[in-house]
């Protein structure tokens, strides 16, 4: 433990952000308590649903430059984060592939131009043809004459990560309290089981759970499937561009694939709709016919916490820091956001890259 401070901090919300913030604060010498109203698996969190793609380039499809920059910074941090965990979690540095059916080539071209706009490293994206697609993903090469390959993108198993982070937090002596709703949260104190508890700092990472206090926070519904497809061998996240939706297929261990995701302006948390199911499943089948015999293990629905500009925000007052609005990039950007949070709590420093996100609480 770092002797420079032994101040206490409560991190409320144990999604990917809360767990990473708690870890970095513990590493920096804080006495950390992590609290969540959900069970320790976090099945109701947005992070339980998130597909775990770490794809700053492909996300140019929907994200502004600042998210790309933070995403690239985070991408460099992920290996260090993983090294600090108590056990390995499923993580692959296999790049990502983008394809489109012939009639939808404009969508892929639009993404290509948006990535080029950003002036990223020249080898960040490669236009490829069938032969190269075959080298990367032999089972789908015959269907696609053109593709885009992003060699530096990565993916992580979100659920394995949540569990691995928790194990690490416990090993580091972080007090982890689950199944405990925080009823109220203020500067340096919070109410739990009708009892006020005080800390030097409270860090609010409640995602959509903070919507009552953060008035312009909204939920953006996302639906996805977990499929078991023994006939499918894909090595990396594969995106299919389409004018109305873009779908992705993200491999996990043992022929399990995450197939997602819709993006609907609604905070409706009800089960997946028939329309979304038809679109996602038929798109997956159009990429690889082996999905016909896949088994649907699960559908998962949650709402991405987002502000109107879809950028994250830090709200700060003495003793209180709120971080929210990670939208569709929570896994991509959390390591860097956690770094911003620690710099602020340790030294009162707003790191230059984060400055535009800060507001008074
Ligand atoms: C379909 C889908 C696919 C996605 N795919 C990706 C992807 O591939 N890559 C990527 O980077 N991002 C992806 N995302 C986005 C990512 O999942 C989110 O940005 C991220 O999970 C948000 O994390 P969070 O920790 O802020 O919130 P959450 O994960 O929602 O965590 C908030 C926690 O706060 C707790 N909480 C709330 N209120 C209280 C209270 N009063 N007391 C105690 N605890 C409370 C909740 O129980 C919850 O555990 C996806 C999202 C969706 C929906």
Q: Which structural traits does this protein have?
A:
361 residues; alpha/beta; FAD/NAD(P)-binding domain; eight-stranded mixed beta sheet; 8 helices; 21 strands; 28% strand; binds flavin-adenine dinucleotide
Structure commentary:
- The protein is of the alpha/beta class and about 350 residues long.
- It has two domains: about 10-55 and about 160-215 and about 310-360, FAD/NAD(P)-binding domain; about 95-150 and about 220-305, D-Amino Acid Oxidase, subunit A, domain 2 (D-Amino Acid Oxidase, Chain A, domain 2, 2-Layer Sandwich).
- It has eight helices and 21 strands.
- An eight-stranded mixed beta sheet has the order 6-7-5-15-16-17-14-18. Strands 9-2-1-13-20-19-21 form a seven-stranded mixed beta sheet, covered by helices on one side.
- Helix 1 (about 15-25) packs parallel to helix 8 (about 330-345) and helix 3 (about 65-85) crosses helix 8 (about 330-345).
- The two termini are about 30 Å apart.
- The mean pLDDT is about 95.
Short description:
The protein is of the alpha/beta class and 361 residues long.
Main pleated sheet? 8 strands, mixed
How would you sum up the global shape? globular
Individual helix count:
8
Instruction: Give the percentage of residues in beta strands.
Output: 25-35%
Bound molecules: flavin-adenine dinucleotide
How many beta-strand elements? 21
Task: Report the structural category.
Answer: alpha/beta
CATH class of the largest domain: Alpha Beta
CATH architecture identity of the largest domain: 3-Layer(bba) Sandwich
Mean pLDDT: 95
CATH-assigned homologous superfamily of the largest domain: FAD/NAD(P)-binding domain
């Amino acid at each position: 433990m770092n002797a420079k401070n032994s101040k206490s901090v409560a991190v409320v919300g144990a999604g990917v952000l809360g767990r990473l913030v708690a870890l970095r604060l513990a590493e920096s010498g804080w006495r950390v308590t992590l609290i969540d109203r959900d069970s320790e698996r976090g099945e109701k969190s947005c992070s339980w649903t998130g597909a775990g793609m770490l794809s700053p380039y492909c996300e140019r499809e929907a994200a502004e430059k600042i998210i790309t920059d933070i995403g690239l910074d985070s991408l460099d941090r992920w290996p260090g984060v993983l090294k600090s965990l108590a056990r390995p979690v499923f993580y692959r540095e296999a790049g990502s592939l983008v394809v489109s059916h012939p009639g939808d080539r404009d969508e892929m071209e639009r993404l290509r131009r948006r990535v080029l706009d950003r002036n990223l490293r020249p080898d960040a994206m490669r236009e490829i043809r069938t032969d190269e697609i075959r080298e990367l993903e032999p089972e789908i090469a015959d269907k696609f004459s053109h593709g885009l390959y992003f060699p530096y993108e990565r993916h992580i198993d979100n659920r394995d990560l949540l569990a691995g982070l928790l194990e690490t937090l416990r090993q580091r002596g972080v007090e982890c309290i689950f199944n405990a709703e925080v009823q109220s949260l203020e500067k340096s104190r919070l109410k739990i089981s009708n009892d006020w508890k005080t800390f030097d700092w409270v860090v609010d990472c409640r995602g959509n759970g903070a919507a009552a206090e953060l008035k312009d926070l909204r939920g953006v519904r996302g639906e996805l499937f977990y499929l078991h497809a023994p006939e499918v061998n894909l090595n990396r996240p594969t995106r299919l561009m389409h004018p109305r939706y873009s779908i992705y297929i993200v491999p996990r261990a043992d022929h399990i694939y995450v197939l997602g995701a819709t993006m609907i302006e609604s905070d409706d948390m009800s089960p997946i709709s028939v329309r979304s199911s038809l679109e996602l499943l038929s798109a997956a089948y159009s990429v690889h016919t082996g999905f016909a015999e896949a088994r649907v293990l699960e559908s998962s629905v949650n709402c991405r916490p987002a502000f109107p500009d879809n950028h994250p925000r830090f709200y700060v007052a003495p003793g209180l820091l709120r971080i929210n609005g990670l939208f569709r990039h929570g896994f991509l950007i959390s390591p860097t956001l956690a770094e911003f949070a620690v710099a602020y709590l340790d030294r009162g420093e707003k790191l230059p890259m984060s400055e535009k996100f800060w507001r008074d609480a």
